Amino acid sequence: MTATKPSNPACPDGAPFRHELYPYRGEDQFLSGTLDYIHEALEADEAVVIAVPEDKTSLLRGELADEPAVTFVDATTGGPNPGRHIAAWSAWMNERAEGGRPVRGIGETAWRQARSAAHLSELRYHEWLMNRAFARSSTWSMLCPYDTADEDQNALLSLSRCHPQIHRDGQYTPNENYLTGDEYSFDALADPCDPFQELSYTHGDLAAIRSKVSQCATDAGVPEDRLAKLAVAVTEIATNSIRHGGGHGTLRTWAQDETFLCEFRDSGYIPDAVTGRIRPEANQVGGRGLWLAHQLCDLVEIRSTPHQGTTIRLHMDAPQR
Is residue 160 part of a domain? Predict the structure, then answer.
């Protein structure tokens, strides 16, 4: 039985992008819920895109054989940064939406493989931003399975707040725990790890910023082949900070848990939460700085409010030698 389609409280004008959390326990429940969702799509002549961990991919392939309307994609190809995921899903869905054909996605994140608390927090934020990024994608739907085997109710509640709908017993209903409105409840940024370096910057200081970050990153163990990528990301963020953040800011750098971090603080404000997560158009003027940072760094954390300004943290892996 298919439930009556509710309006999406995340979407302006009731746009019908459907974003469902599917809490399940064990392989049998995973298969029953996802296969019901897939077969419902196939009966409606909709395409399906599946990005789930390798063991779940094997389970579904065994049940679906060579169904041409179902496509499996490797969610790890974009790297560890959740800031790249919206662009990846947009590309996958657009490729299968020939002639306006509706497309359903099934995306299960490997939550237990999160690299750090910051990474886990950004994964949840990505789930919330999907509602903003695809608000007017009227022919797209997304099912997000979540294994509740560890019985961590706090983790389930945090993720539930990112999904306007919840999927149970083959039906989806509005999720009473969903965070409506425009404000996301961020986890607080952890304090820099001592010892950290600090530098105030303004117009004309780009060379000094690059030099400072390069030396600190080298000392922290960032591989040489990644220093050039970090330099590009740092240049883009510092330039934006000076240009849009009041003409000056503060840089901090430190190393923590085999990760090098550099943080930019200024008085500017980024009003669009999905800035940097959607691929810029070829003829677009500006707007590429955050996009490049997401592509080049292992994690990007952004906190921006009109009253407190903007903080951007760039993470780069620095494995111990």
Answer: yes
Q: Burial, 77: exposed, middle or buried (Cβ in 10 Å; 0-12, 13-18, 19+)?
A: exposed
Structure tokens at 114: 């999160």
Angle at 38 between CA 35 and CA 43, to 5 degrees: 120
The string of pLDDT tens digits covering residues 45-74 is 999 999 999 999 999 999 998 899 999 999
**The residue to which tokens 């237990």 are assigned:** 112
What are the tens digits of pLDDT across the range 182-207? 678 888 899 998 899 999 999 999 99
Do 281 and 135 sit in the same domain of this protein?
no
The CATH number of whichever domain residue 222 belongs to comes to 3.30.565.10
Domain boundary pick from 139, 174, 209: 174
Task: Print the domain residue range for 278.
Answer: 197-317
What is the Cα–Cα distance from 285 to 280, expressed in whole angstroms? 9
Number of domains in the chain: 2
Is residue 180 assigned to a domain?
no
In a domain, 55, yes or no: yes
